[in-house]
Amino acid sequence: MPAFHRPMSTGQIASYLQMSVEVVNKWIREGKLKAYRTPGGRYRVEEADFIDFLKEHDLPVDEEYFGLQKKTVMIVDDDQAVVRTLSLAMAELGDFEIVTAHDGVYAGYLLAQSSPALVILDICMPGMDGLSLCKFMRSQKETQDTPILIVSGFIDEEALRVADEYNIYACLPKPVSMARFYEAAADAMEIEAPEVNSGAK
Fold it and tell me: Over the Cα atoms of the chain, what is R_g?
């Protein structure tokens, strides 16, 4: 589970549990709920400690409230081997929900069903190609700012022009360098990239 370090006040905890602040303070004094005092003498509870408290006492943990829901990464490529490789690579970066599509049309359908934190796509695909999908995403309010990472064997001047015009995060040629992929994907997701052997391509 991710580490959470945001402090919560007793008022916030009471509101979450729909109980009084006095009950929360009682739990703290009895050592049931781990807390510390601010310089002003007020109790504060780390989110991680509160989540542990909820689980220990079989109380509901609202994943949306705590931001525990998995981020979704969409991989769009008609080559299943590439999809598997990139899926495994993303697993090295974190615990993400991976959704896949083998053409731009189906990817467009999936975009209406989910809100991916990152879209990784090929250019040459049946139906709607990757560049057309980029244009479609930027025309939609829900995906106009979604990071897009192109991984393709067909990165030409037109692809680079579209990438610049539609604010594509990065264009990586196939066969993709895993070191460069980790770096680009991690930057786009604002997470730390894993260490890669210096000899890895």
Answer: 22
